Amino acid sequence: MDNKSVRWFVVLFIVYAIALAVGLFSVQRPVPVPDGWVGTVADPKTFIPEGELEENALFARIRDLLYFLQTPLMWLLVLIGLFAGWFRRAKEWLDRRIKLRIWSGTAFAVAVLTAVELIQLPFHGAYYALSRYSGVSNMSVGFWLTDQLKASLLSVAMSLPVVFLLFFFIRNSPRRWWAWMGLISVPLTLFFVFIQPVVLDPLFNDYTLLRESELKADILALADQAGIPADNVYEVNMSERTNALNAYVTGIGSNARIVLWDTMLEQMSTEEILFTMAHEIGHYQMRHVYWGTFFSIAGTFLSLYLVFRGSRWLLAKFGWLWDIPSLSRVTALPVLLLVFSVVHFVATPVNTGISRVMETSADEYALQMTGAPEAGISGFQQLARKGRSETYPPRFIRWWRYTHPSISERLHRFESERGSGSALE
């Protein structure tokens, strides 16, 4: 056991956590909007009470703190496990009790994947507690725990075959395994994009056909204009979970689905719903699902190559100390997960930046398709109120975490469009 390394990791994490907390909570709450936006529809003070604004900003800073602690804490625990020999001893313990190596290796992989889920559980619990306290979540503790259990079991079950393939390629192609895994990711990604709406989503929520109405006819008319091959609109029962509002278009080809949360149907006007649906339909019409899938596959190839290089470097430096002589050993799984997590975390601003570009273009599509910026303004203000959103976060948080432009930025864009009148042309 390398006690010195373990102590240094712990000290560095504590210093990081303190510096992070000081940096996040020293930011003015709420963050002031630009001077030119003060008093306009983009100014949250015009549609959210002052006390609620401050509370929303506080909740947002707590969520940011949890986010920036969650993944580094996993790195810390994995590194401690490697330097302290936890993983090596766990594999030895399994080997003594399970004679067939393939089964002991499987048990080790399941244990590691389960440990990752357990590390994240307290953070998920904190997010849930915040949502419950702020009035966004309606879920009981039992309901939430059941959801978490289903999600964790599904994650481990879906990850295990990927781990088998990973080590198969590492053992049979030590220098090209990352490329083979990248190729395998192509059909896997397409498969999950295709089956998610009809197989995975119903595991967590109840989907029913939206009753025949003028709203349904209007939504299908918008979809038809965009060439979406959908002849039905689905309503999902989210009110048992949340007071937040949402709608989306998911899937590709014959599995494309238009979905509205029941909370939106209950609380938004027809014009606001149609504007939101036009935004979602814009994603489909502009092939954002396909572009997103392409970027996901390309990112997977790049990530796997970086994992290949990074894990080889780590084993060259510390493999002797961790008793992991080769990546082909199943005990190298924590190393591979560690490097992949670092790569994924560092790449977050790239992914969110691409998403914000797509969201901005979908907003433009909605403005042009509906010619109703007023509906966009009132609808997004309601989204912010119901979701207890921070409408104008600090610049760094927007850059790193936000997959959408902030609510205030979007409202300013809608107001500009309303003033120019170009949306109606």
Given as residue ranges, the uncertain stretches (5+ residues, pLDDT < 50) are: none
End-to-end distance, in Å? Answer: 71 Å
Class from helix and strand fractions: mainly alpha
The overall strand count is 4
> Can you list the strand order of the major beta sheet?
1-2-4-3
Name the overall outline.
globular
> What value does the Rg take, in angstroms?
24 Å
Count of separate structural domains:
1
Strand residues, percent: under 5%
Mean pLDDT across every amino acid position: 91
| Tally of individual helices | 15
Order of helices and strands: HHHHHHEHEEEHHHHHHHH
Major sheet: 4 strands, mixed
Helicity range: over 70%
Description:
The protein is mainly alpha-helical. The protein has one domain (3-204, 288-422). 71% of the residues lie in helices and 4% in strands. It has a four-stranded mixed sheet. A hairpin with a 6-residue loop joins strand 3 (247-250) and strand 4 (257-261). The N and C termini lie far apart (71 Å). Keywords: Hydrolase, Membrane, Metal-binding, Metalloprotease, Protease, Transmembrane, Transmembrane helix, Zinc. The chain crosses the membrane at residues 7-27, 65-87, 108-129, 149-170, 177-199, 289-308.
